[in-house]
Request: fold
Amino acid sequence: MSDLAMFMSNPITWAFLACLLAWFALKSFTYLGSRLTDRQASRAEIEERRRSVTETEKILHGVAQHANDGLVYQDMQARIIWANEAYCRTMGYTLDEVLGRRPQEFCFPPEARPSDAEIENFVFDPDADEFHELTRRLNMRKNGERFWHEFNLALIETEAGEQRVILVSRDVTEQVSREQELERTKAELHHAANHDVLTGLSNRAAFQANADSALQAHGKLGVMYIDLDKFKIVNDTLGHAAGDAILVHVAQAIQEALPPGSVSCRVGGDEFLCACPGVGDLAALEYMADNLLERITKPLTWDTNTLDARASIGLASVINTDTSIDELIRMADFALYEAKVPGVQAIMRYDASLHMRKVAEKTLINDFVAALDNGQLEFLFQPIIGAPDMAPIGFETLVRWRRGEDELILPGQFLDIASRLKRLPDIDFQAATAAAELTHELRSRGHALCGAFNVAPDTLGQSDFLHQIQRLLDDHDLPTDALNIEVLETTLFGPDAGDSPAARCISMLRKMGVKVFLDDFGTGYAGLAHLGQLDVSGVKIDRSLSKDVSSHRPARLIAGSILQLCHELSIEVCVEGIETPDQANFFNNHGCDRFQGFGIARPMDKDAFLDWIETGAHDQFPSIAAAS
Reply:
């Protein structure tokens, strides 16, 4: 819309134009009357013109009097010569009460009222903003009610050459209220978009922007990365309301402990970030972190319970602006990761030695990702033999990473990296493919073995996992029982299990006919009491239990009980860690279904495994068969 259109659409503009029209009309008729006299017009003509002028005056006066907008006629000292009904109604005064008075005497709240001297000496300035644009001021009615008044002024000149001022005004309180409510809503939305609802701290995006500004302004900055220790136990035992109380408590401790000008945020879950402008010394930052931990660990009473909060903190600082905030946060995060290793309530600095470890880990991560993406992971296969004839019945697929020419890295060194990078599903699918390929090769040679591979909960939770398994079976012409899947105990038990996508996926695999084994049984949540709850085909007894059966009576009792219960529940049992004939004989005599371990065969590559099967190398452990 053009400026002219906006001006013409304003109701106050029309009221103002009406006043000007009245003034111009009066001037014009007066001028015409004088011209008629000058021409010695007839008395009848003059009277007719005067009657016309009088009638026009009445009409225009009526228009002004009944206009919705307030109209005020004033002299240059702001004394009111005339005001219409709308103005008087808005102010709460009668016309007699305002005539001869200045609006400044009665329209302002006490705190905004000019002094008597200022009112007495007031004279309109034609160059003032009020003569050129709409002005909005807080006024007060006769009854003390405050309201917003919007007005503008126009300067006119009488026939006698005197200057007068016309004020056009209206009550815009409702409009101002709507505008203020809109501004409040915008402010609330902006705050919500940049702050954590629970704690009131900034979110990560706002934190990074504020921290970057602080770094640029001060040239040095200290960052704390805070993670609550064992916070999940509180949520799981007392509920999320208790957890929320701890989060609010920690946020308050952060705001109280850190110096003015610090910025902080809740990263998500139970993690927080703090930035301290002007702090480039790690020792000073650690002193602040100690003070913060002291406040965090103060007991918190919640719903008759005393809650104990504990935290670990990673520290990083810079004394120049060359390091980005993102990099500084990563440094603090790396220090936090190291702080969590020894236990709880630890503080770790990102110093030179830690930097060297971070560089080494970064290189390791980059190399691992390249190996994973380029299909350079290696898969070995460890045989599994079955009772009663102790013949090979399958194998477990094990992943290895050969870094460079000679460095063979075991899973314990890189699976944690894969987990942090959310790449475990990629490893699992590669292992599944390797298992399917070897199983197909074996079956094409007349060996009906089954291939097993490990699957992480993240993999089971993927929406296309079942489709991927079915496609592997179809592509390699395998029946559904040709592939066995091994899962960790935490997939089915513990605080994260329940009705999880992974647990539901296992049930669907079982319905498909795919065997699912619970790996490392007896080392975590699962035990004898849980056997009846297992929705699996079998369990694998961990080496930590099987290694002592020859010499440790409690180990024999536990292992025997597991085997007995599993048989009664129709759950297969595979024992891992078989290294000696005595171990093998014990489990064989107690009805174990499957055996696996170095005493049978070590993991080997595909060609070696095929050779092991076809040359009968598995017969080199005859004492097992003899004992059966």
